[in-house]
């Protein structure tokens, strides 16, 4: 009986706050812009504009050997959709082309290629333009793959070579067998959109309440600070779900990205992350109480790391140990791992559970911290 | 005596100034008593500690020392129990501008747990009281300042609070809306027995309260019935007639220097004086016969304030190169000026003329279009239509040329808070193109004339309000402009700082500088040669203060105050508008 008397007005107040927040959200063009227009723009921009796929790589091939084997290898490159080989006869010419930037790599087939190939000890030399290290590494592995595939085929056809083939390179890309970068860009985009909605929007609206003095009026009423926090969290949580569905749907229908895992895991994990993001936004804005500072700081503290340090664009394993250590503090890191697994590999529980657990702990900590910061006090 | 709902003893609160660790003593040992069923007013200029004291009572801040009980509860320890029972309207009204009038009301009713039957009974009452019934669907952000303030009040009254705290409910609102709000508050106290504590920087509003607490720089000057404060000046208030051909303004400026004079203000063509000693019958002051008058609350306040604050020495400004003696022709000519922002017409066919060496005042509430007009005059904003000539040049085509001849002091003074006083002056001097010896000379002049020498190394953000205003004026005068624009220079300043400000303006005008100034203090119109009253983007009336005052004659045939003249002008204009509408 007592419980009901305490809970009924509490629920009524939370409902009133959620209603108010939702109305403001719908009427504020900037919320719609960040919550719905921005995700769409990001998806189109990243989806069509930014592609990490490498194809039609201009490649200078220095033919020092004119044997059938060498010609055969060149043909394998010429037929591949990934390369556009250009035959040159001196390494000086090749160097010049590389300097001019008209080729991205030089493949040298030495004069003893055919001889050593039949002996099972063939070598080719590859030089790649390393300015864009990511692209360089991809080209490197493509060349290795092409050469490996060629030599394997040769061994199979002639049956003459030694066991295992002369150039035994095998490179295979796991979980992205179509090698389409949209497959990992779309999950990454979801991370960005969830970060924007959760952290950025919440930080903005909370700071706005401080700035406009509306919190002052709310504070001197029966509303408790926990209710204010819930009243902010619930609507942005809802907007987060909307943004998520928008991303998943566009990923599926625009870029044909399959969801291998279950939608339930996807939604559940995303909800944990939105709560983390909302917590960060609440914390920052309750501390700084100024829209400009709060928005800048939220961008720096959540959006930029989610873009650069979450493993979405850049591989975490190739980062220096110091920076990699920092990434363990970033919620986006766990969410990216969770999302990419669910999207591309399926419900792999050994990956999902630990990452989800870290997010859940973060939700609890942030919830506690925002309660502590949003006490009903000024100054 | 009625039970007291608030008892505060020796309250202290110190804030740290951001940045350099300086301290601001917001409250320095203030005691207060608020009795049930009464209207209590906290009176004082900006920075007196009014808002801090109200926030202590609302449980939004905790005092550093002293004891406070609100409804018998210590709000620092159990804020929620206090907040459940009181109503509070913060300075910015606490409204959600993107919610409609009805939605704002519903939100607060939900939060206070007002049940549907109660609402059915309460809403019509509130709507009738505030006259907002026609606007329930309108967004709060689209209401005028006066309507927002009434809605803010209605939101605190969705249920009957045991104590209502209002933080400067009338600041920046037009006199008409101020009067309406006071009618509502007085009704609540008298008819519904509500206990109200309100703060205000308008001294004349204090007289409406049962008790006042007069605050100045964190200390209480008095706590009593307002009449008792007024009585302090009994027998000391007189008026002087400067006689034909003499201006009240320059007589007043001269009288302020007299150590026997506590206060002097121009008032309806006369000079109103508060003397340090009791006036003798038939006495003459400065060779003029003094007529005793009934003291006002402000007179008593000034006596109290003079007891605390040092008498500021003569503040005459001497220009090094005063503008050439007034040639015929207008310094500023405005004809049919229009400014639209999208659908909204901020300035609607405004015309006026300012003669050289004149002090011209633009009066009106917030949102009347004063600042927009100013920005167009200074070439900061292109007009949507009409003609503008400043110092004989068309601002539209010769913006830079015209701007070199005018000085502009923006609202809230555009100073660089992190730079020192001297650095600010150096920056503005460079911005005006002053170099070398000339630059040094002008900066020294400004430091000397505005008494800023001692503060040269102080960061301007740390200056007290009055000094900020002086620095801003000094910076605007560095390039010796012919025309000086001042946007709300006295807003929130204490009466002493305001007197000193007008004193400087008067001496500038005497040396040939044309001054155009905006203000929402109606009494300050008396310092102007001519004024224009603006409301809703239009000029409703213009002329000398005496001409404007003639719009409203008091019942006894005496000239009315500038404030009632303003109300009469605005009411007539609004009635005309209503009649013109089909």
Structural summary, described in words:
The complex is a heterodimer of chains A (379) and B (582). With 379 residues, chain A is mainly alpha-helical. Chain A contains 14 helices and four strands. Chain A has a four-stranded mixed beta sheet with strand order 2-1-3-4, with helices on both faces. In chain A, α3 links the parallel β1 (57-63) and β2. Chain A starts with a helix and ends in a 6-residue tail after the last helix. Mean pLDDT of chain A is 82; it is low at 161-165 and 168-178. Chain B starts with a strand and ends with a helix. In chain B, the strands form five sheets. Chain B has a six-stranded mixed beta sheet, with helices on both faces. The interface between A and B is medium-sized, with 28 and 37 residues.
Query: SSE string of chain A, helix = H, strand = E?
Result: HHEHEHEHEHHHHHHHHH
Terminal CA distance of chain A reads 39 Å
Q: Indicate the proportion of strand residues of chain B.
A: 25-35%
Radius of gyration of chain A: 28 Å
In short:
The complex is a heterodimer of chains A (379) and B (582). Chain A contains 14 helices and 4 strands.
């Amino acid at each position: 009986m007592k419980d009901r008397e305490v809970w009924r007005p509490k629920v009524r107040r939370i409902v009133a706050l959620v209603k108010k927040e939702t109305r403001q959200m719908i009427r504020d063009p900037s919320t719609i812009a960040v919550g719905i227009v921005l995700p769409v723009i990001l998806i189109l921009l990243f989806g069509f504009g930014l592609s990490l796929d490498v194809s039609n790589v201009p490649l200078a091939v220095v033919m020092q050997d004119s044997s059938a084997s060498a010609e055969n290898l060149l043909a394998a490159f010429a037929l591949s959709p990934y390369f556009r080989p250009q035959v040159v006869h001196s390494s000086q010419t090749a160097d010049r082309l590389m300097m001019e930037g008209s080729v991205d790599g030089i493949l040298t087939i030495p004069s003893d290629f055919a001889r050593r190939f039949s002996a099972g000890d063939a070598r080719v030399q590859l030089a790649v333009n390393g300015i864009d290290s990511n692209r360089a590494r991809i080209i490197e592995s493509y060349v290795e793959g092409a050469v490996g595939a060629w030599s394997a085929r040769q061994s199979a056809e002639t049956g003459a070579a030694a066991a295992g083939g002369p150039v035994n390179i095998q490179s295979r890309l796991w979980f992205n067998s179509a090698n389409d970068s949209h497959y990992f860009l779309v999950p990454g985009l979801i991370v960005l959109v969830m970060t924007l909605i959760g952290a950025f929007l919440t930080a903005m609206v909370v700071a706005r309440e401080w700035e406009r003095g509306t919190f002052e009026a709310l504070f001197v009423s029966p509303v408790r600070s926990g209710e204010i926090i819930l009243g902010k969290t619930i609507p942005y949580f809802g907007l987060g779900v909307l943004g998520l569905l928008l991303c998943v749907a566009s990923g599926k229908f625009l870029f044909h990205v399959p969801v291998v895992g279950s939608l339930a895991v996807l939604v559940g994990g995303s909800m944990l992350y939105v709560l983390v993001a909302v917590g960060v936004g609440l914390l920052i804005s309750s501390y700084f109480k100024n829209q400009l500072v709060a928005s800048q700081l939220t961008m720096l503290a959540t959006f930029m790391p989610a873009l650069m340090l979450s493993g979405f664009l850049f591989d975490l394993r190739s980062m220096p140990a110091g920076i990699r250590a920092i990434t363990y503090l970033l919620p986006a890191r766990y969410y990216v791992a969770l999302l990419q697994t669910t999207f591309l590999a399926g419900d792999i529980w050994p990956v999902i559970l630990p990452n989800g657990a870290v997010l859940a702990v973060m939700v609890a900590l942030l919830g506690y911290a925002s309660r502590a910061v949003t006490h009903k006090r000024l100054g | 005596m009625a039970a007291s709902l608030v008892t505060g003893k020796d309250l202290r609160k110190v804030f740290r100034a951001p940045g350099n660790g300086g301290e601001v003593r917001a409250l320095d040992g203030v005691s207060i008593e608020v009795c049930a069923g009464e209207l209590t007013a906290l009176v004082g200029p900006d920075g007196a500690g009014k808002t801090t004291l109200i926030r202590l009572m609302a449980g939004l801040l905790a005092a550093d020392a002293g004891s406070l009980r609100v409804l018998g509860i210590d709000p620092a320890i159990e804020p929620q129990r206090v907040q459940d029972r009181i109503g509070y309207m913060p300075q910015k009204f606490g409204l959600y501008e993107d919610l409609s009038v009805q939605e704002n009301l519903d939100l607060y009713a939900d939060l206070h747990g007002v049940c549907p039957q109660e609402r059915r009974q309460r809403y019509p009452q509130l709507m009738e009281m505030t006259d907002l019934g026609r606007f329930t669907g309108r967004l709060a952000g689209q209401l005028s300042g006066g309507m927002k303030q009434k809605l803010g009040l209605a939101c605190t009254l969705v249920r009957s609070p045991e104590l209502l705290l209002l933080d400067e409910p009338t600041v920046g609102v037009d006199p008409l809306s101020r009067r309406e709000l006071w009618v509502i508050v007085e009704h609540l106290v008298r008819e519904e027995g509500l206990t109200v504590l309100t703060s205000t920087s308008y001294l004349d509003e204090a007289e409406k309260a049962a008790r006042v607490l007069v605050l100045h720089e964190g200390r209480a000057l008095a706590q009593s019935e307002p009449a008792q404060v007024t009585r302090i000046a009994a027998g000391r208030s007189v008026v002087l007639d400067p006689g034909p051909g003499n201006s009240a303004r320059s007589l007043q400026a001269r009288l302020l220097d007299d150590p026997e004079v506590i206060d002097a203000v121009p008032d309806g063509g006369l000079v109103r004086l508060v003397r340090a000693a009791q006036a003798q019958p038939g006495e003459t002051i400065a060779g003029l016969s003094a007529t005793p008058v009934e003291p006002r609350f402000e007179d008593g306040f000034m006596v109290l304030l003079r007891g605390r604050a040092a008498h500021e020495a003569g503040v005459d400004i001497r220009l090094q190169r005063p503008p050439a003696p007034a040639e015929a022709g207008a310094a500023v000519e405005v004809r049919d000026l229009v400014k639209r922002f999208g659908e909204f017409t901020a300035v609607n066919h405004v015309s006026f003329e300012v003669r050289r060496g004149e002090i011209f005042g633009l009066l009106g509430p917030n949102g009347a279009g004063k600042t927009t007009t100013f920005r167009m005059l200074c070439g900061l904003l292109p007009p949507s239509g009409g003609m503008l000539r400043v110092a004989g040049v068309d601002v539209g085509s010769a913006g830079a040329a015209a701007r070199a001849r005018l000085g502009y002091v923006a609202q809230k003074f555009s100073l660089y808070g992190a730079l020192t006083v001297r650095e600010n002056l150096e920056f503005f001097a460079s911005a005006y193109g002053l170099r070398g010896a000339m630059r040094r000379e002008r900066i020294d002049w400004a430091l000397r004339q505005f008494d800023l020498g001692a503060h040269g190394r102080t960061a301007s953000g740390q200056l007290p309000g009055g000094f900020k205003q002086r620095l801003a004026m000094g910076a605007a005068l560095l390039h010796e402009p012919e025309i000086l624009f001042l946007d709300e220079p006295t807003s929130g300043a204490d009466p002493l700082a305001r007197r000193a400000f007008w004193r400087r303006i008067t001496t500038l005008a005497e040396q040939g500088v044309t001054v155009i100034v905006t203000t929402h203090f109606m009494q300050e119109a008396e310092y102007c040669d001519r004024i224009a009253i603006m409301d809703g983007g239009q000029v409703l009336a213009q002329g000398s203060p005496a001409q404007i005052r003639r719009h409203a004659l008091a019942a006894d045939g005496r000239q009315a105050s500038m404030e009632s003249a303003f109300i009469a002008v605005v009411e007539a204009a609004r009635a005309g508008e209503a009649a013109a509408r089909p």
